[in-house]
From TrEMBL:
It holds the Pfam family Gln-synt_C. Belongs to the glutamine synthetase family. GO terms for molecular function: glutamine synthetase activity. Keywords: Ligase. Residues 93-438 form the GS catalytic domain. This is GS catalytic domain-containing protein. It comes from the Eukaryota. The lineage of its organism: Eukaryota, Fungi, Dikarya, Basidiomycota, Agaricomycotina. InterPro entries: Gln_synth/guanido_kin_cat_dom (IPR014746), Gln_synth_cat_dom (IPR008146). The keyword Acyltransferase does not apply.
């Protein structure tokens, strides 16, 4: 959920130029507020200072009639706690990701490039939920010249590019009214920021054309769902011989990333698949990555797809266990933190043993028990948000990496969000709330 404050240009310039510590006061309860429900552990007392990060400033075309600039920031304490001079707020998602990037760089001499696939559905109505258009996957009929959907997609693409967000490609997707825009690659923080701006531009351009854009995981149960697949490549910053990339073979850092994420994937899912509807998409046989903790070369029914294995420069992982209800900064922080638990063990004399082998061309769900066991595919992703929360709560290593304060707060807010989403008595009303929330 993207929250904002709108500041006139003159006021913003004055804030930056004349304030000793530029920022906007935000009630601390905001991080635990779901509608008007307050998550356990949060109180309507106290304020954070939301400090703008000028490096994130960019004009957002398509968002308003007059030029609208977007800027992201970080939550800080207004006063240092106790004897500490540090004002960092552990609950801040951008701070958490920034901290994780620094830790991976310092402990593993590694960095990443990240690109996202943004899938969304265009609706003419939210009750009942009605798609703008019905088309087949990648069919040009989904963007015919002169059609409203083509006009909207062209407007979105033009707005993103004018805003400095690079588009790799876009096309009609498989679900009714569904489209996909691929952006990137960027550094993790830049990629997460760009994804926030991408979503803001998509929904605003759609609204300008009288249409509602939703990122809800699976509004139509008779078709595939909507996701936010992350493409991540791993790079050595120390130019180490034993971490060099070669064709058709994973480097030690690439193995370490894969092993760490797979180790902690049942817990990571609490952050990347955070709501009950996430588990309507993350099922077997729907191109979602399936329900088994697995990876495979060019295998779209695995949690992680390895692609372009023969090309060291473009080889990357497609992480398919993410949807658009996840906070992108927290999602990347969790993945990089999990990866760090194995990457930091790498040395010139040690290899990384992958307990889970390449699933190959077969879906884990249709393998026999013996076949899965031979591949090391012995665990499943959670099948509900409640199970996911339990997995995260019990993953002590990941909790320590992310910080117990952040994890405890997330679990509390997540449970409150689940209650809010399920408060409606009928499935139609629940679906209406879902597509309007996301």
């Amino acid at each position: 959920m993207r929250r904002c404050r709108v500041i006139p240009r003159e006021s913003f310039i004055q804030l930056i130029e004349k304030s000793n510590r530029p920022g906007v006061n935000i009630a601390k309860v905001a991080l635990g507020l779901v509608d008007l429900f307050i998550a356990e552990g949060f109180h309507p007392i106290g304020e954070f200072l939301y400090v703008p990060d000028l490096s994130s400033l960019r004009i957002l075309h398509g968002v308003g009639k007059t030029p609208i600039y977007g800027i992201l920031g970080r939550f800080e304490e207004k006063q240092p706690k106790g004897d500490k001079k540090d004002v960092e707020v552990e609950l801040c998602p951008r701070t958490a990701l920034s901290r994780m990037i620094r830790q991976v760089q310092s402990t593993c001499s590694a960095e990443f490039l990240v690109g996202f696939e943004s899938e969304f559905i265009l609706l003419t109505s939210t009750k009942p939920v009605v798609p703008l258009h019905v088309h087949s996957w990648s069919a040009s009929a989904g963007m015919l010249n002169g059609s409203k959907e083509a006009e909207i997609l062209e407007d979105i693409a033009d707005s993103l590019q004018a805003s400095g967000i690079k588009i790799e490609l876009f096309h009609p997707e498989a679900a009714p009214g569904q489209y996909e825009i691929v952006t990137g690659p960027l550094s993790p923080l830049e990629a997460a920021d760009a994804l926030v701006y991408t979503r803001e531009i998509i929904v605003n351009v759609a609204a300008k054309h009288g249409v509602h854009a939703t990122f809800a995981p699976r509004p139509f149960m008779y078709s595939p769902g909507t996701s936010t697949h992350a493409h991540i490549s791993v790079h050595d910053t120390a130019n180490r011989t034993h971490c060099k990339k070669i064709p058709n073979e994973l480097s030690l850092l690439e193995k370490g990333f894969l092993a760490g994420v797979l180790d902690h994937l049942p817990a990571i899912a609490a952050i990347t698949l955070p709501i009950p509807a996430s588990y309507k998409r993350a099922v077997d046989g729907t191109w979602s990555g399936g329900t088994y903790v697995s990876w495979g070369t060019e295998n779209r029914e695995a949690s992680i797809r390895l692609t372009n294995v023969a090309s060291p420069n473009s080889r990357r992982y497609e992480c398919r266990f993410i949807d658009s209800t996840a906070n992108p900064h927290l999602a990347l922080a969790a993945m990089l933190g999990a990866a760090m638990t194995r990457m930091k063990m790498i040395s010139e004399k040690s290899d990384v043993q992958l307990e889970i082998q390449d699933a190959g061309t077969k879906q884990a769900a249709i393998m026999t028990e013996e076949e899965r066991k031979a591949k090391g595919i012995t665990r499943r992703l959670p099948l509900s948000s409640e199970e996911a929360r339990s997995n995260l709560r019990n993953d002590r290593e990941l909790c320590e990496v992310l910080g117990t304060e952040l994890v405890d707060a997330f679990l509390s807010v997540n449970k409150t969000l689940e209650d809010a989403l399920m408060q409606d008595k009928t499935e139609d009303d629940q679906l209406k709330r879902l597509v309007e929330y996301y």
